[in-house]
Amino acid sequence: MSLVFANQTDFDALQFDQIDPLGEPYHVFVVRIAYDIVSDAKGQAALQQSEEAATLVEEDEYFGGLNQSSVRCESDLAPYKPCCDVILNASAHAPRHQSTRRFEVGLRVSRPDRPAPLPAPPQALNPFMPLTLAQQAAWQAEVAALKQVTLPSRVLIDKRLMVTGARQFKKKALLTRCLQGVLRWASLGLIRPSPWKLSRPAKLVELPLRHEFAWGGQARINQRDNSHWATDTKSAQVWQDNPKPARRLPKALRLTPEQLARHPENQASPALQPVAHQICETNPLGRGYAPAWYLRASQLKSLPAPQIEYPQAPITAAGFWRSVQGKTELTPAGFGCVGRAWQPRRRLIGVIEEKAIWEDDEYPQLPPDFDHGYWNAAPHDQQCPHLIGDEVFELLNLCPDRAPGRIDDGGHHRLRFQLPGIRPYLMFADAQGNRGAKLMDLDTVIIDPETGRVELVWRCIVTARADLVEAQLHVAETAAKRLALKEWLPPQQRAELDGEVTHGA
Q: Domain range holding 339?
């Protein structure tokens, strides 16, 4: 008997079926809710349900071209996320909106202070016996004591990034590099100065926080690399007197015919087909990535450097040179989605079975060693346990001037808002007429300060072997409604609800 899903809310929701790596079928329920960031009566930021309802995203959305730009939002059709993704599609805004060379931006997510859950009234040994005075007194004393207890807030995410103006890695002058070679020889190789330097950042006021401005990129040499052709006659003559970049590549570094046949641009004109192509596995969209072979072939004297970095691990010329030599891997920094095919996310897929021919009754399945963490799209330091729906979010220098919030003494814009506290849940009925309920998990938060919009995605999975015939989606907007759900919930969710219904309206 098939499951009938009824959406009893005004929000966009969907039910679909999946099979886990062990072949077990299960039902997936997902709903997306949108809010606007507004100013409340006190001038502080608050969330208000958006008049423009959110729609479920059925395929990945990009800021630009497919696989050629950062992902704006991934599909909501992920079967399960073991953690909550906090995705921030934002731009960095300089303090006081005044141009500067560098400044910090930040994201903080925390659970608010909450009263301790109160114990249920004690039960007598049997329904015909009243409680003793001692039992009543002990319970009342415990309740009175717990009413004075506040569970402290818990920080779930606390992330800071440094943003800089445009800057470049530049090759040092020949004389300087010669002197460095002498120093290296004199120190018997103990001192190995970088032949590159990092220029001083230009000033900036605003920067989109996308992977295109973080560490990463691609190293590619075409059959005829036009990027190095000069426009004036003198420079063109110098170019003609030197071998082309493609000719500087040894055979071992060139793409084989088989590799070229699998390349996405194998149908390009011969001049634009790649001779060698290597990408940064952790961020193919970024800037700064340059293996040694690429620098030798291209003979570049400068290349763009990342403008987004971790304050505790700043980008340096020495670090760049170590990466060129393959001695270290630099870490991309950002707040947006990590690409599905990027590392370290890609390795969570596991070992995929490859077959040339599939039988009629066969179909590809997830590998047995598949890690469901693959479905989480946020950077690892923006993943946290599933949210309840009343968490506090704080943004630093991530909002335009028109956005709600406050300006601190240093001119930094600070936005603070709390999730509204509603809780979607499902009511079930099986073929025998038994009923039950299950709370949905908040596993995706997408914040767009530029549009002043926050979207929440809630998900729930239920085994398909439960013989369910009906599922209804509802929303509990208040603590009282959540409390009324308690008797229908499984034991583990009752305990979870105890921590929620003791606060909130």
A: 160-346
Query: What local confidence, expressed as pLDDT, does residue 80 receive?
Result: 96
In whole angstroms, what is the distance from residue 301 CA to residue 325 CA?
17
Ramachandran quadrant class, 370 (left: phi over 0; alpha: psi -120 to 50; beta: rest): beta
Distance CA 180, CA 171 (A): 13
| pLDDT of the residue at 237 | 35
Residue 391 lies inside a defined structural domain of this protein = no
Q: Calculate what percentage of the chain has a pLDDT beyond 70.
A: 90
Listed residue (437, 411, 423) closest to 490, CA to CA: 437
**Could you tell me if residue 441 is inside a domain?**
no
What dihedral do alpha carbons 192, 195, 200, 205 form, nearest 10°? -100
CB 66 within 8 A of CB 340: no
In a domain, 432, yes or no: no
> How many domains does one find in the chain?
1
Contact by Cβ (8 Å): 233, 273: no
CA–CA gap between residue 100 and residue 82 (Å, rounded):
40
Q: Which two tokens stand for residue 93?
A: 């805004």
φ and ψ of 75, to 5 deg? -60, 145
For the chain, how far is it from start to end, CA to CA, in angstroms?
A: 40
274 vs 389: CA distance, rounded Å = 49
Residue 184 to residue 447: CA distance in whole angstroms: 50
Q: In this structure, is residue 324 part of a structural domain?
A: yes
Distance CA 300, CA 294 (A): 9
Query: Exposed (0-12), middle (13-18) or buried (19+): which is 304, by Cβ within 10 Å?
Result: middle
C-alpha span between 273 and 149 (Å, rounded): 68
Q: Which letter, b or e, does each residue of 91-127 get, where b requires 16 or more Cβ atoms within 10 Å of its Cβ?
A: bbbbbeeeebebbebbbbbbbbebeebbeeeeeeeee
Parallel, antiparallel, or unpaired for β 168-171 and 302-304?
antiparallel
The pTM score is 0.86
